Amino acid sequence: MHDALAPLSVTPVTHSVPMAKNHRSDRIPTDTASRPAPGTVLDRLASGPSRSSRITHTEHLPPRAGRHAVWPDRIRPEVIAAVQAAGIEHPWAHQAQAAEHALDGESVVVATGTASGKSLAYLVPVLSTLLDGSEAPNGRGATALYLAPTKALAADQCRAVKELSHPLGQAVRPAVYDGDTPFEEREWIRQYAGYVLTNPDMLHRGILPSHPRWASFLKSLKYVVIDECHTYRGVFGSHVAQVLRRLRRLCARYGASPVFLLASATAAEPAVAARRLTGVPVVEVADDASPRGELVFALWEPPLTEMQGEKGAPVRRTATAETADLLTDLTVQGVRSVAFVRSRRGAELISVIAQERLAEVDRSLARRVAAYRGGYLPEERRALERALHSGELLGLAATTALELGVDVSGLDAVLIAGYPGTRASLWQQAGRAGRSGQGALAVLIARDDPLDTFLVHHPEALFDQPVESTVLDPDNPYVLAPHLCAAAAELPLVEEDLELFGPASADLLPQLEAAKLLRRRTKAWHWTRRERAADLADIRGEGGQPVQIVEEGTGRLLGTVDAGAAHTTVHEGAVHLHQGRTYLVRSLDLDDSVALVEEANPPYSTVARDTTSISVLETDVEIPWGDGRLCYGSVEVTNQVVSFLRRRLITGEVLGETKLDLPPRTLRTRAVWWTVTEDQLDEARINPEILGGALHAAEHASIGMLPLFATCDRWDIGGVSVPLHPDTLLPTVFVYDGHPGGAGFAERAFHTARDWLTATREAIASCECDAGCPSCIQSPKCGNGNDPLHKRGAIRLLTVLLRGAPEEKPTGAEGEPTELEA
């Protein structure tokens, strides 16, 4: 289904620009002459017989010329002059087109490539409108609100806005308003700032509940900028969609109807996704007119080692160790690089290994590599960002906290340690290099994992496929209910509001009344409690108050970890890394949300193990797959961390296991599951002795492959396999969303089940190992120590199951495609 509102015809004058002119849409240094070509850098990395064989594929994306345009004549000449003073003589065609839509009062999404100047596309009309409003004879001038998914991106954008708007005097008054903003500055921002940069969390918890104090700002709100809008997916995106509906409701109360300006370098059907996020019609600008330098993209598979893993499986060298080596080599060559790493611990470990190896070459080089991740204190993050901007740092090992738009100008290479979960994120990370139009190198280093192994040997799955659709469900009752309460606390809810919040809201209100959260008086629903209604919704799904990590001897706060991750990452005995230092967790107090640590240097890392059980609450859809069944519905998952393993650093050898006593946690969510019958087991030659291992292996591999078919990460989903499940009375494999109420991933799995499970079977069958390994059926997060597993049984089981799969796509309960599929 496509958006009903077609883009208006905007035809700016365009002409081609040769790459040599290096026209810039961002303020980026142009010292490209001494930079080696990306192919040359890759040749140096792959030099030597042992390394050259690790490259399984190299993709060359050719350079592209740019197409200029002219700014709409309604843009203030002072703004155009400021842009030209920044070194940008003419806009790209897509920038002018987006500005035209914004000035026409149409919400617009700019969905062009990384470093295509999307910031300027929305900033120019915003600055022009703020300048117009500053000349209003009475009252406050026009205002604009900027939303970023991370604090770092908002702070980075504020720096860029201040530089660009400096010639405009006091008309713009940009300011960051987030959890790090000093309280003495907040009142000034509320009263006087023209361009407020914040994040959805602060909008949800700080601005909307205090809307009377923001009345003059909201009354004058002309634009809402939503940067990196593709990140608003799953449960987080669903929450943000409802936060934006609350914002629109309050703006209407103050007489404003802001235009939404959205930007994303990686979005499928961007207008459809933007409309679902904002609730308003959105025009799409997706024809990228900016120039692009050559991109060399290599797929890299670490070699097998002599080590043996669980059950004697062959083990590849870790992506962490391989990435640390490559980052070291790039730093020695003077190539400015970022290594993106999946976990906070991985980022720390890569930086430590690279620093140690660089110190052996030149001690001064070791200081030019660092780690960057979430959980750092604000002043630590800001210092690292400044060092990266200045060029003081040559190499950085970073989590996705640095993925989103932060201006890391001048990078030559990007290392990606493990597939990041989606093609959208892969291209977002790869696009951080080559931002001034020069050539760039990107290297995806495969982890010992089914999906990574599949991708480095099937490059067409990365380079011949579009990015994924954004999956979000604002009608999820676990998401909608707390936002209805928050909205009622901001202004009593009336019947007319229900259309804004979606069709599910009418059914939820009686339940909220019965729970004594809302009370109906005459024609409106009111919040009835003393506590803050906004605290009911945890929009990032992090499961409560973050756990503070405190050094036991000094009382110094080192950082924080999300509550949902505390059981697995800061349990008693866990190894915790922070800025290159190693700590051991001495105690975890869940009541006070504090983990006490002390500095140590153990020769091992720790990995938590857990147990999981699942029960079916309701089956929404059930379709036959031969004698078997494919189902989708609601489940309750009970999980408990029961122990942790100590693994030797680098090799991963297991040194021992320690029991833990942590409370179980329950999760009500959505799942897809499939069953097989006795006849199908006979056909697959599966006897009772290998049944559990076959199911378990199929479960692991299917979880590993699902990110290829749904906009998710394997850590967003979980699975359970049971030889005889009490609810189905059959052998059953479940794959479920790891978020309360579901995130849309299991539903996407249900609708792509035939392709998803076919790819799963192929990934297992094509692996060269004999009995199963991390590249096919072993899981890095298995709570049972990858026992039992049976590789050949899984292949035969999936073969028989897929013979019964229907050709047509499964439909919803009423025979129609669901909203997600549409």
TrEMBL record:
Keyword Repeat: no
All residue ranges annotated as the Helicase ATP-binding domain in the record: 99-285
All copies of domain Helicase C-terminal, residue ranges: 326-478
One Pfam match: MZB
Region of interest (Disordered), ranges: 1-66
GO molecular function, one term: ATP binding
Gene3D superfamilies: P-loop containing nucleotide triphosphate hydrolases (3.40.50.300)
Protein name from the UniProt record: DEAD/DEAH box helicase
InterPro entries cross-referenced by the UniProt entry: DEAD/DEAH_box_helicase_dom, Helicase_ATP-bd, Helicase_C-like, Helicase_put_actinobac, HRQ1_WHD, MZB, P-loop_NTPase
Keywords: ATP-binding, Helicase, Hydrolase, Nucleotide-binding
Recorded superkingdom: Bacteria
One BP term from GO: interstrand cross-link repair
